[in-house]
Amino acid sequence: MKYVFVSGGVISGIGKGILASSTGLLLKTLGYRVTSIKIDPYMNIDAGTMSPLEHGEVFTLDDGAECDLDLGNYERYLNISLTRDHNITTGKVYQKVLEKERRGDYLGKTVQIVPHLTNEIQDWIERTARIPVDNSGEEPDICIVELGGTVGDIESAPFIEAVRQFQFRVGSENFALVHVCLVPVINGEQKTKPTQAAIKDLRSLGLTPDLIACRCPKELEPTTMSKISMFCHVGPDHVLGVHDLNSTYHVPLLLKEQKLDEFLVKKFGLGDSNLSQERITKGEDLLKRWSDLCSSVEKSLEVVNIAVVGKYTNLHDSYLSVIKSLEHSSMKIGRKMNITWIESTDLEKGVASEEVYNENWAKLKAADGVLVPGGFGSRGIEGMIAAANYARTNKVPYLGVCLGLQVAVIEFVRNILGIEGATSQEFDESTPEDKRAIVYMPEIDKNKLGGTMRLGLRSTKFQPNSEWSKIRQLYGGKPEVFERHRHRYEVNPKLVSEIENHGLSFVGKDENHLRMEIFELKDESHPYYVAAQYHPEYLSKVLEPSRPFLGLVAAAAGVLDKLLADEQLNSGSKADF
């Protein structure tokens, strides 16, 4: 097993996740099987109880793990399915060590950070790196490990020490370290001192980088690269310039131009001799498809404008998978994506100022399509309900995700069924039962928040006589699909029949045909009015976009009928890369 560690210096949020994903992609284009691990040095067991405004979106895996958003990057770029063990946190590691101590596994020894905690981290990495993550079911060849946070942070210290020990544990021929640093531009001059200081800190902790990836707004000048090489004690060819690009999907190609993949092949002593021709061919095909996709995006002239009406729009990372799914879908149909961000409270009269209210309603009405994503809590709900009503009554393409389904059901129950004051049990526990459009799922633990939702990959079965459904056609006409869930509430079963009798059809239900999973407005004059209780954005891939999102973007661009007629789409085929 070969290991590539990606660490960061100077500041957090510097782009380690994209660089780690891009490195993995490049190795995959050579025919190797790649897996990824993310280390988060926070004390939480997982990200499940964090606010999206605190740490960005909570990405959910097949096994129900609530984890860091960077695991979404890995899955999207590498087309793999990770597990809860692929996200290591300080909380998880301490929990594991303390469990062993309570069992007496340490045979009476004094349990310490070194060696017990650092050994547990190393064991965890080695064990997890060998878990199959793709359709082949075979062990990966290379593991990319991203160390979250910034080197020098007190929280990261045990992990840095574990990585220092790990390089000797696996041998230098199986270990590579890429350190990502910031090169700021001050008064037009590229400054190298922050990078020099970061590398000095790294070396003082016993780690020497094989490659230094320099993030900079502009392309690195030769003199800057030469200076970093000299003062950071690496070869000139080992300094990579990663400047701002039109799209993060160009980063793998930028790194390939600088021969990152060739360096790692040489470092690890890899070659084509131990790969089958089939794997080499698949890798070459992946690189071509990726390059073609990036090229086609650059040539796109037409723009599709989607309004995202959410509760956490001040931090766009709160909706990272949603953003990526929209981008994947727009690239699929050859359009440029423009996202109009609308904070849902700004659509509420009396909450927002009149100026802000009018401005945001003008934004909504100018959009080609409307998306209401997931979220929790009562703030901004009336604005979301108003957006769903606008999309339904004005025949504007609409996609609701999780909470977006629930608010659209509430809107329909209020305005079509005539149940005034209908709402969700989440927003008002005292709501009379006959006005509860959305209710708690009976199996949910109301007193414990962490890991108690309906989580992970689950079946959705399309209902009989739903062949007319556009969303079913987008899924290739399949009778059953599997998507990832993260929710505590569901449509009130007592209202389902009445809702369907008025034209909002629940075309997809759970495996027991009891829980509402997908609705679609049965109205031929409406281009696309669809919502899902699950989170389709979690399974969207760069070269294989999420079908509900693809439907929204295609409908907003006016090409949905053409897309549905496409034979490849209707066959339900999926690219194997």
TrEMBL record:
Domain Glutamine amidotransferase, first and last residues per copy: 315-551
Superkingdom of the source species: Eukaryota
Signal peptide stretch: none
CDD domains found in the cross-reference section: CTPS_N, GATase1_CTP_Synthase
One of the Pfam families matching this protein, by short name: GATase
Domain CTP synthase N-terminal positions: 2-270
Swiss-Prot/TrEMBL catalytic activity: UTP + L-glutamine + ATP + H2O = CTP + L-glutamate + ADP + phosphate + 2 H(+)
Single GO molecular function: CTP synthase activity
Pathway connected to this protein: Pyrimidine metabolism; CTP biosynthesis via de novo pathway; CTP from UDP: step 2/2
EC number: 6.3.4.2
GO BP annotations, alphabetical order: 'de novo' CTP biosynthetic process; pyrimidine nucleobase biosynthetic process
Enzymatic class: ligase
Protein keywords: ATP-binding, Glutamine amidotransferase, Ligase, Nucleotide-binding, Pyrimidine biosynthesis
Gene Ontology CC entries for this record: cytoophidium; cytoplasm
Similarity section: Belongs to the CTP synthase family.
Role of this protein: Catalyzes the ATP-dependent amination of UTP to CTP with either L-glutamine or ammonia as the source of nitrogen.
UniProt-recorded name of the protein: CTP synthase
